[in-house]
Write a structure and sequence with these properties.
This protein is of the alpha+beta class. It is built from 14 helices and 16 strands. The relative contact order is 0.14.
């Protein structure tokens, strides 16, 4: 039985009836509000809600690469570079989002930015410059991959101009006669992480067809992203959003907008998005046990991870009322499943940990919070924050400091090309959207857990310590799901003390740690004066 079938089998008759009613309601809603094609003529259209948020941030942070997202794959075997260029060009012509630029408002006060789709340009693949090839095969073998990473880091870290485009860049790096790396970077305003998987899979499908002398194998997309943006603006009008907004305001009334994370370095007056990531493997038996733990309490794996992350954040800050941000895919319509575009939004999950609850009780609270948030998922996060009107600061993002992402499907996992072995080629973007972001993801070799962090705030050693603490909490939840917050604090405090002792033994006496006073209620971490890593 599949995981989904196993979950259904565990439902009570009442739960199954409720699920069927919800699915029927969703099917009826989809049928009543289908996305249609906009009129022909190429006129600019409004931005989607998610695009508008990114556009305004880009205006304030002009010349930055904070919203560049990239993907790369290693190709082993005989590669026809010309066929690959042709395949990439075909995908650019298929998806209007990859040929979109953004026009600044002019004229009347209050005018909104618009998106304009450029015509397809077969000669130069809409400005991608024909998939340039960097040949590193002449270098000594041990230098090729490091040089490729430096080259791609420089390319993917360069700013993308929203007004001029192109907002997609791609490179092919040759590491040897039968070893290449294909890398793509897009601005988040035209694509999300799932879109990169769509992009690479469609390039692979076209490559296979063109290499065999066949025409394009994929049907035309039923709609384009600008159609979705227009539909979203027309569907989610003010009267329809009013009820959802009132519910969100009730849910988040009085929620703290600042999470006093204890940092290793003084908080800068203006936040930067410079970041890094530490990862560790998760045994499959542990992930399966966490999933079973959730099922026994009517929760998904995501809810279990949210609850455990809340326990960690409580220990770090001393807070019993905190907000965690989680990405929302936003592809709940058939028309958008294989469309390249910016669909992702953010769910605000308010966690209350007062009263020293046991983990089972906390799971019940989290289940209710996640269910309610998902019911109101169509209201854009930015609209909620704007209505809450939290105190603004250049030093942090209100309500958006701690993030969490559970990735159950790797969008690059299903890619295959004829005669080529395809494997992910991980690139470090050097960017962290949140001050702390927990990632639990499934990849080809199993699951891993990662901590993404701002390097202006935290040291690498701190991130490694947080990984160890998370793993300890995962083990504790499986071993004794009745533990309470007091037990968790004692466990984590012991781990942190051992880490600091080991760190002190490794340091010379002259480089002893200094203490950084944290915000009231937060546990201070240590920081040192060496180069921040």
């Amino acid at each position: 039985m599949t995981a989904a079938g196993d979950s259904l089998a565990r439902l009570t008759p009442a739960q199954r009836t409720l699920l069927e009613l919800r699915l029927e309601k969703r099917r009826a809603s989809r049928a009543a509000t289908g996305i249609g094609r906009r009129p022909a003529g190429g006129a600019p259209v409004p931005l989607s809600f998610g695009q508008q948020r990114l556009w305004f941030v880009d205006q304030m942070e002009s010349g930055s690469s904070f919203f560049n997202i990239c993907a790369a794959v290693r190709l082993e075997g005989r590669l026809a570079a010309g066929v690959l260029r042709r395949a990439l060009g075909a995908v650019v012509r298929r998806h209007e989002s990859l040929r979109t630029v953004f026009v600044a408002p002019t004229g009347a006060p209050g005018a909104q930015p618009l998106q304009r789709v450029l015509p397809a340009a077969p000669a130069d693949i809409a400005g991608i410059a024909g998939l340039p090839l960097a040949d590193l095969a002449a270098l000594p073998e041990e230098r090729r991959e490091p040089e490729a990473r430096l080259l791609l880091a420089a390319g993917t870290g360069a700013p993308l101009d929203l007004a001029r485009g192109p907002l997609l860049r791609a490179w092919l790096v040759r590491l040897g006669p039968e070893t290449h790396v294909l890398a793509c970077v897009v601005h988040h305003i035209i694509a999300d992480w799932w879109s990169l998987g769509v992009l690479v899979r469609e390039v692979a499908a076209h490559y296979a067809a063109f290499a065999a002398g066949r025409p394009c194998p994929l049907p035309e997309p039923p709609v384009q992203y600008p159609d979705f943006a227009r539909w979203q603006r027309e569907t989610l009008d003010e009267p329809r959003l009013a009820g959802a907004l009132a519910e969100w305001l009730r849910r988040l009334a009085g929620a703290p907008s600042f999470l006093p994370l204890p940092t290793d370095f003084p908080r800068p007056a203006v936040q930067s998005f410079r970041g890094a990531e530490e990862r560790a493997e998760l045994p499959e038996e542990l992930v399966a046990a966490l999933r079973r733990c959730g099922q026994e309490h009517g929760c998904t794996l995501f809810m279990v991870v949210v609850a455990l992350y809340g326990v960690l954040l409580h220990w770090l800050t001393g807070e019993t009322d905190l907000v965690v941000s989680a990405p929302l895919g936003g592809r709940d319509r058939d028309e958008t499943e294989n469309l390249i575009g910016m669909f992702v939004d953010t769910l605000l999950l308010r966690l209350r940990l007062s009263g020293n609850p046991c983990f089972r009780a906390l799971l019940g609270r989290v289940r209710e919070v996640v269910t309610d948030a998902y019911e109101g998922r169509h209201l854009p996060c930015d609209r909620i924050i704007r209505e809450l009107a939290p105190e603004r600061s250049l030093g942090y993002s209100p309500l958006l400091q701690a993030g969490l992402n559970l990735v159950e499907r790797d969008p690059l996992e299903e890619v295959s090309l004829p005669g080529l072995a395809v494997r992910r080629f991980d690139l470090d973007p050097g960017i962290a959207q949140f001050e702390l972001n927990l990632v639990v993801a499934r990849a080809a070799g199993g699951h891993w857990v990662g901590v993404q962090y701002r390097t202006d705030l935290f040291r690498r050693a701190t991130a490694r310590g947080l990984l160890a603490q998370l793993r300890a909490l995962f083990d504790l939840a499986v071993r004794r799901p009745g533990f309470d917050l007091r037990e968790a604090r004692e466990l984590l405090a012991g781990l942190e003390e051992r880490r600091l002792q080991e760190e002190r033994h490794r340091r010379p006496a002259s480089a002893g740690p200094r203490r950084l006073r944290a915000t009231a209620g937060a546990r201070p971490l240590t920081y040192d004066t060496e180069v921040r890593r």
